[in-house]
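Repro case for the chain-ordering regression, as requested:
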Amino acid sequence: MPEARAAVIHRLGEAALVDAAGVIGAFQRMNRLADATGLPVDKPLAVLTAGLDDELGIQGFYTAQHSKRLPWVVRKLGQIMRPFGSVMMKVLAPKNDV
Amino acid sequence: MRSETAPAFFLDDSPYPIREGVLEAYRELWQRFSEPGDSWTGAQRIAIAQESRDAKDCDLCVRRKQQLSPYGLNESHVLSDNGKLIGAAAVDCVHRIVTDPARLSRRMVEDARSSGLSDEQIVELIGITCVTMAIDEHYRALGLPLAPLPEPVPGPPRGRRIAEDRQEIGTAYVPMLARDSAVGDEADLWSGRRTAIHIIRALSLVPDALRDLTILSNEQYLTLEEAPAFALQPEGRAIDRLQMELLATRVSQVNECFY
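-- result from build under test --
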């Protein structure tokens, strides 16, 4: 760890190390929060990232059981729409959703 | 009510330039943890936070993690005086969340319920465990000693409950505030928006647990307004959004978090 910290400081500076460590803390929290409460992936996101889970090999994660696997047709549709993801997210997400 | 005995929580003697906003958030959260919650007393809330630290050195958790199944060992934790404040079921939840996040399942919540914990107690416990761990992990990643936990404020739990007709049941293992139910005293929860994604609503059965999370997330990561705007570079940060998401992805991969 001291070597890793020194490398970050050397390349990016001390402030970057602090903020990077903060993001690590934030996601140690978010991961546990999502999996302790059994959160399924939100549907708009699930559609737009359909197929990405296979590509990343994360369907084998134990915690994938929290989310229902989408039907083949929907997954295929999601793959086709992925290049337009940022636009489609606005369309699929409920208005004013966060 | 603010505690007179809770120690200050400062990092300004650290060797690193930690933003004042982060320091303020941590001090505020420590203060909030010391006070009675909705389902646990201040002493119990601090005991949960302490247990999240003790889990890191738990022999049973190490041996459990080596098992093919997270429930492969028919053993229980030996309770410390701290653990006795919250009971065996709560201790087991905290330890599993901290030490074996990749294998959390519905069974953990169901076991806690069948041991007599209410959904509100479970949600509040998850919130305290995760927030304490997030702060501690920030310290650990920087190589800093952990901040001492505050002295608890005496008093009974406040006992506030979200009415059942405002709860959404079945989406997650625990009930959540329904998408359209952030009104009245809970109008602030979605930051003024009409609805919110699951990760925001996860702790909303106990609104103050979600508020704790928001205080922390605003400083460690992003605000609710900033999070969906992937092209936006958050102000005052020393790393850019792409670097933040890369770190988030790597941590999530290590924790085998599908969400």
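Ordering looks correct now. Chain A touches chain B through 52 residues (CB under 8 Å).
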